[in-house]
Amino acid sequence: MAYFLTLAGARVTVLDAGLHAASTVPAALLNPVRGQSGAVDAGAVAGMALTWDVVKTLTEAGYHVPHGKTGVLRPVPDARTRARFEQRLPADLAHHWLTPSDSPVPLSPGWDAVLHLPEGGWLDGAAFTRALLAASGARVVRGRAMRWDAAAAELEDGTRLEAKAVVWCGGSVGGSWAGHAATHRAGTMLLLSGPVSSLPLSFGAYLSPAAHSPEGGGGVLGATFERPSPVWNAGPLPLGSLDWLLKKGETLADLSGVQVTGRWSGSRLSGLRAGQTPQGWWQLTGLSSKGFLLGPLWARELAGQIQGRPSALG
After folding, report:
1. 260-276 and 160-162 strand pairing
2. DSSP characters over 43-86
3. Residue 307 in 3-state DSSP?
């Protein structure tokens, strides 16, 4: 929001409490075909293209944003799943089907077919969000918003920040603080000593290259799999979940050549809220696991609306 509001001519102050794990994900997939159902959100193709355009702009401006526009592989276990995916693939999404033996990277046995999405890939979420904030030139105030309205936000110490427009972008933590009814889903990524695959693999969990190591050649195994919660929960990773995640990874590819070097955990907020509220302030939240796929698209749309331009998303 800060980046696109600045492009639209606004002066922006970002009020940040500093608890935003979902924005620092080590490897976010740009994968428009979601989950095990193969659903494709409206705007997913345009959102993926816009995110890559922003990454290119930031990179050309000198910001370091590790990424790989390598494509994404989505293996499917049976013909029924493939048929379900095929029914939901939009005509404007570049894709083709492969046999497991034709996969560009080795897969574990047992897959029926592989959907290749050549325009997908991965990016370093932390580097991307840092670059967006720096490129925006926004003033950053560290603190927690205790209350806000259409023209101001108030901090814990009573400081009042006034503005022509207020945009709330609280995620899982902020949604719980605000008391908003929503669904929170915790997930974990195991940081790996190296990439298992040269391009992301995804079904039930995902393996991806990443750049979290000092040498920049790491990998991740991740999924969102804990029981949904009505509130944010920052608890530790249960051993049963660790075992589940490793087994999911082994169904995708051979993990024997890598070691687990650490972990990243976060919580995502489901239930998109985008637009102006009846109280006059604006919001963009609840993008769930699609923050990097659809977040820039929605942010650009709302920035235009806030600056008085007509809506493109309807």
Report:
1. unpaired
2. THHHHHHHHHHHHHHHHHTT----EE---EEEEESSHHHHHHHH
3. coil
Residue 299's H or E segment, with its range, is helix 291-306
Range of the domain at 204: 2-306
Q: H-helix or E-strand containing 291?
A: helix 291-306
Q: Does a structural domain hold residue 208?
A: yes
Size of the chain in residues: 314
DSSP labels, 97-127: EE-GGG-SS---TT--EEEEETT-EEE-HHH
Give me 147's structure tokens.
């209350």
pLDDT in tens, 218-265: 999 998 777 888 888 777 777 778 889 999 999 999 999 899 999 998
Q: What domain count does the chain have?
A: 1
pLDDT for 32-50, tens place per residue?
999 889 999 999 999 999 9
Determine, yes or no, domain membership for 314. no
